[in-house]
Amino acid sequence: MLEVDFHTHTHFSHCGIHSHLEILNQAKALGMKGVAVTDHGPALKGRVSPTLFDRFQCPVKGLRFFKGMECNVLNEQGEIDLPQHLIPYMDIVLVGIHFNIQEGLGQEAYTQMLLNVLARNPAVDVITHPNDEKYPVDFVALAKAAKQYGAALELNNSKSLLKRDDPAVTRALVKACQQEECLLAVGSDMHAIQELGLDEAVQPYLKDFPQALIVNAKAETAFQFIASRKNNKEHR
Ligand SMILES: [Zn+2]
Ligand SMILES: [Zn+2]
User: Fold this and answer.
1) Rounded to the nearest whole angstrom, what is the distance from the C-alpha of residue 62 to the centroid of ligand 2?
2) Ligand 2 being an ion, which residues bring their Cβ within 5 A of it?
3) Ligand 2 centre from 148 Cα, in Å?
């Protein structure tokens, strides 16, 4: 079980079904220390609520709540659907390649796409599920770039839990992070409440992986990572 989950979806995402309060209360009940809600950006019809970012404060005591978004890559130039005016409110920004991007373009194209994302969007903290087989990526090149920008690559529990990954590909992702000393973030990618905080499906991949490279190995390191990235969220 994760102490801090960086990747969760409410019904503000088209694919989500739970409320913010359901997730926060469940996190507290599970004994978690923090949770980031990261609904999809507008390109996947995610609801972007100024009230959430501007006014909502977590009412659950003893739990850190982080405001975030799982943005979508928009094109090969690496533009993403992160609303610029909301950047200062963001505690954590995730980005992934999703179904708005055409499949079958080949590994080189998707790798370049993500390298461009990192180069042009300093607010990006985590690249989600780079082991998605529909969008193959050169993990070594991506890990090198992520390290350069201080961003993390995600090991996504839902992809493994729901058997939507190829274990050999996921192993290659973890190996590249270890080899390049790139940060790794474990995320549940929770859509259904029982998935909150889960990391059991990816733990087998982390047996020999250095704990120091896992940004949310413990609550303390998760909070430090988020704090260390705050400068990248200044309005620009
Ligand atoms: Zn995603
Ligand atoms: Zn997600």
Assistant:
1) 25
2) 70, 189
3) 24
- H/E/C letters for each residue in 190-219? ECCHHHCCCCCCCHHHHCCCCHHHECCCCH
Q: Where are the domains of the chain?
A: 4-233
Q: What are the pLDDT digits (tens) for 59-89? A: 999 999 999 999 999 999 999 999 999 999 9
C-alpha of residue 9 to centroid of ligand 2, in Å? 6
pLDDT digits (tens, 9 = 90+) for 147-176: 999 999 999 999 999 999 999 999 999 999
Select the CATH number that applies to the domain covering 4-233 from these four: 3.20.20.140, 3.55.40.20, 3.40.30.10, 3.40.50.300.
3.20.20.140
